[in-house]
Amino acid sequence: MATPIQGRVVEKKLWTPRLVSLRFEADVQPFKAGQFLRVALELGGDLVGRPYSFVNSPEEWPHEIYFNIVEQGQLSPRLAALEPGDALWVNPVANGFLTLDEIPEVRHLWLLATGTGIGPFLSMLKTDGPWRRFDKIVLGHNVREARELTYQDSIDHLLQRHGEQLSYTPLVSREHVTYTLHGRIPINILNGNLEQHAGIKISPADSHVMLCGNSGMIEQTVELLAERGMKRHRRREHGHISSEQYF
């Protein structure tokens, strides 16, 4: 493992009392959109770190992470307390295989996230790669409350640039909101609402599904898609589903 290096916070955004974005400067090695790096703080004389996905694209500066404050967590409340100018530590080498170069050629790309899992998908969509490769891209973001539908400025910008290719579907599970689908991603796949909203079908013939977020969503979605003949993608055995589990 590479030796951690020091970075410095340049901006903090508190989206809700529990959702935070941090932008920071650090001499991180080149990475691929969709990857993560380990961010740490010195606590009790030790470096305590966790993996966080990049929200920024590889061409953007400064770096950005998006995370949920775990109330009794050792690290996240302290990260959220940082202010511009404060120091943090990062592993300069990124990791992770939730990247576009890992998936086969298909026509339709489905990016389905819960909560902060939208971060790596935004990193991907800020690059030119997906718009050259896919006829249609669906971004589904599932949250509990409408106020957690974050990064709307970034999404609006993507829709303005790629409106014919990009379909954005917000899903809210604990409120009924007119401009969103109600309920969780698996339910909206099962009842057909997600595909109806996107205007295309999830099919093993022309679709690849990338999942990022909580384990329950990922497991249930994989089970539903398996009923359609879709399977997990592996380097040695091409499939239709890639995933990154956050908790």
From TrEMBL:
Name the cofactor(s) required for activity, per the record: FAD
Q: Which family does it belong to?
A: Belongs to the ferredoxin--NADP reductase type 1 family.
Q: Tell me the enzyme class.
A: oxidoreductase
Report which reactions are catalysed by this protein. Answer: 2 reduced [2Fe-2S]-[ferredoxin] + NADP(+) + H(+) = 2 oxidized [2Fe-2S]-[ferredoxin] + NADPH
* One Pfam family hit: NAD_binding_1
FAD-binding FR-type domain sequence ranges: 2-101
Q: Give the matching InterPro entries.
A: FAD-bd_FR_type (IPR017927), FNR_bac (IPR033892), FNR_nucleotide-bd (IPR039261), FNR_type-1 (IPR051930), OxRdtase_FAD/NAD-bd (IPR001433), Riboflavin_synthase-like_b-brl (IPR017938)
Q: Enumerate the UniProt keywords alphabetically.
A: FAD, Flavoprotein, NADP, Nucleotide-binding, Oxidoreductase
Q: Name one GO biological process term.
A: heme catabolic process
Q: Where are the transmembrane segments?
A: none
- Provide the GO MF annotations for this entry: ferredoxin-NADP+ reductase activity; nucleotide binding
- EC nos: 1.18.1.2
Q: Which SUPFAM superfamilies match?
A: Ferredoxin reductase-like, C-terminal NADP-linked domain, Riboflavin synthase domain-like
Q: Which Gene3D superfamilies match?
A: Nucleotide-binding domain of ferredoxin-NADP reductase (FNR) module, Translation factors
Protein name (record): ferredoxin--NADP(+) reductase
